[in-house]
What we know:
By secondary structure, the chain is an all-beta fold.
Amino acid sequence: MTTVTRFGAFLPKDTDGNVAQLHGIGVWRFGDTWYAYGENKVNGNLFQGVACYTTKDFDAWENHGIVLDVQEDGSALGADRIGERPKVLHCPKTGKYVMLIHAETPGYGYAHIGVAVADDPLGPFAFRTTITWRGYLSRDIGVFQDSDGAAYVMSEDRDHGTHIYRLSDDYLTIVEDVACERATDYEYGLESPTIVKKDGLYYWFGSKLTGWSTNDNMFSTATDLHGPWSEWRLFAPAGSQTFDSQVDIVVPLGDDPYDSDEFLFIGDRWMKDDLGDSPIVQLPIVIGDGKASIAWDESYEGSTHR
Ligand code: DGJ
């Protein structure tokens, strides 16, 4: 069980005192260490590589540098492209660490998933290719690894909704469109998708589509990833705009990620004119019995709104 005591809205810093470039954070525990991957946004929105940090407590972050480099000109992850929401899975079949990342052009028209592979969670990751399912758009992504080792990538597709796709056994490609959902009374599926499982119930979180602005994020539940998925409901006070953040990931803190009593919510509070200095919003999230909720305590750092 990992104990987290730092909550609120703040800039995570590395052990050298620099802002940890953990925007669009993906985080998973390998062994007894948490490995986090983030968008390096020091110089704006174009791709500057994926940064990696480790932590034991979600407070002190050790910087391991860029683990997926900017690729050569013409590549889907070259210096004139965008890379968002890097997520890393450890594949039990191959033993490899597989990074999935939203690969974009500046107009957000490319909408593919980049795939990169490493032998070590600290990289270096070798960029392999980009994938989509049947050419569908794939904007914001998240990943979920189930207790049976099957892995999934959730992917927002403006035309159809947000998909849950099952990955192949080597996690390198998509083999099944498991579900495709639009949010309740909303014309789109939700972006920034993330899923956790507790007591056999899947909880799927996401944000409405408001660019870099925040909104009241929602969640849905199901006993099977194929669905049926429940109606989408709030998990933060209505009108708080999820305490002015966009859900990025919900992290099970227990030793067994599928039987955790405690979860951590991490969201982005994007500063569109200074993305590299965008704070995170880090809060306990109570999950169980089909419910989920975050609350703000006056002891927390920062404020509920920017
Ligand atoms: C919302 C997405 O969640 C972010 O990752 C980013 O793509 C912005 N839109 C860009 O406007």
